[in-house]
Amino acid sequence: MTKLKIRKIGNSLGVVLPKEVLDQLKVKEGDTLDVVPTETGVKLSISDEEVDKLMQMAERIMEENREVLRALAK
């Protein structure tokens, strides 16, 4: 188990991830992490830009076609 101290970073609060954690996540400076709530806390995983773009596209399409999708669901 790794314990992380919450620190003030500018006007925000944050944590610094130790090298061992960064190595486990296989991330480097500039990468983006997804933070997903779970029943016991949160899960950190490296964000996949391609998946993020596809999800945004799918959400936009669903929003634009809400009535059609609602009719198809009946």
Give the integer mean of the pLDDT values: 90
The H/E string reads EEHEEHH
Strand order of the largest sheet: 1-2
Q: Could you say which structural class the secondary elements and strand pairing correspond to?
A: alpha+beta
Helical stretch count?
3
Summarize the main sheet.
2 strands, antiparallel
What's the β-strand tally? 4
Shape: elongated
Name the poorly predicted regions.
Answer: none
**Straight-line N-to-C gap:** 49 Å
Fold and architecture overview:
The protein has 74 residues and is an alpha+beta fold. It has helices at 19-25, 49-64, 66-73; strands at residues 7-9, 12-14, 33-38, 41-46. The strands form two sheets. It has a two-stranded antiparallel ribbon with strand order 1-2. The longest helix is centred in the C-terminal third of the chain and has 16 residues, at 49-64. It is elongated. The protein starts with 6 loop residues before the first strand and ends with a helix. The model has no long low-confidence stretch (mean pLDDT 90).
